[in-house]
Amino acid sequence: MIQYDPHHWRSHLFDLRGSMVREIFARVTVCVAWSILVVSWDYAGRPAVDFSAREWAAYPVLNNESPDDTASKIREMSWPPTTNPFVNLARQYRIRIPLHGHTLIGVALGLLLVFRTNVSYDRFWEGRRQWGNIVNDSRNIGRLATSLLKENRDLLDRLLLWTMAWSWSVKHRLRGKQSIDKIAAELPTPEVLEVEQAQHVPLAVSMKMTEQIDAAQRHGLISDVQQSLLDGSLQRLIDALGACERIHNTPLPFAYMVHLRRALIVYLVTLPMALVADFGWATVPALLLIAYILLGVEEIGVEIEDPFGNDVNDLPLKTLCDTIENNLQALRPGQRATAQAPQLDDLKQPE
Asked: Residue 273, CB half-sphere, CA atoms under 13 Å: how many?
């Protein structure tokens, strides 16, 4: 995730990183090349001498010629014979089309793109909200455990470590890996291997957390009510994980995505044919601008649709996990946090 000041345009207006320019550069280049071909084709097929209707009518009178001779002569003057196959084809097949259709379709296409981007941002914000819940519930477990399990430091330490491991396991789960990251070095190796080889690592870690809570209740350190409080926070962690997995595993419906992209391609491919009559060579920069805007909006939707990856605009999961770890490290018996939790303002790229 890139942090920026929205009040200062100059600080980010010309940035390439995170602006989708690299992602859509090839597609925009193809559109520009196609527009150059269309304009070249149109100019090759244009008459060398373009007579107006009045000139067509006046020519035979001024030159004392019959209408048939005049038509033949004007045809030769307008389209002189050539052996260039490109020019002959361009004269035979004109590719101009009316602009009215694109005016109407452009409105519908814009609505489709706006809907696409809104749905993607809703998924992005829902992911951020669920990770906020993970941070809060991890802190609640640490707060309750520190207060209720202070008589058994070993049990408290294990519960705090497994709570740290849980957030790391969720991060790696959402990125297709099975790991509890650096917390593995502070936990017993056999238990770490058991957890990391499980079918669902976060669930296995949550079982370890439940074991610590259950042991505390069996040893009389906490009551049934206090056990329910700790288990409630753990249950909310599982709920947040389920919400994140729902976002990660459910992309935008295939039919909507395919239809939008097909419509976008047809629109951009045919647009130069509608513009070339009025714009001429200005069709090329016009299509460059239009393609950049439309393809950029569509790519933004793709970028933030799954906010848990490694793209520059994705959520800073490593920073959020570091925040949880530093908060809970400060609560461990006999220890204090050795480093302040990283701030999102200092973040440059998700890890």
From this structure: 14
Nearest alpha-carbon partner for 131 in 159, 162, 166, 158: 166
Residue 38: per-residue pLDDT:
92
Closest CA to 45 of 273, 288, 287, 284: 273
User: Rounded to the nearest 5 degrees, what angle is found at the Cα of 100, between the Cα atoms of 98 and 105?
Assistant: 120
Determine the Cα–Cα distance for residues 298 and 104; give it in Å rounded to an integer.
19
Q: b/e for 183-207, b at 16 or more Cβ within 10 A?
A: bbeebeeebbeebbeeeebbebbbe
Of 255, 347, 261, 350, nearest to 302 (Cα)?
A: 261
- At residue 345, the pLDDT reads 46
- Rounded alpha-carbon distances, angstroms, from residue 327 to 22, 128, 151, 308, 335: 38, 19, 21, 22, 12
Residue carrying the six token digits 């993970």 = 134
Q: Look-up: residue for tokens 């929205």?
A: 6
- Please say whether the beta carbons of 325 and 164 come within 8 A: yes
Cα separation, 29 vs 57, whole angstroms: 45
Which residue is associated with the tokens 């060398």?
48
Predicted model pTM = 0.80
Question: Whole-angstrom Cα distance, residue 159 to residue 211?
Answer: 9
pLDDT in tens, 76-87: 555 566 667 777
For residue 244 the two structure tokens come to 């994140």
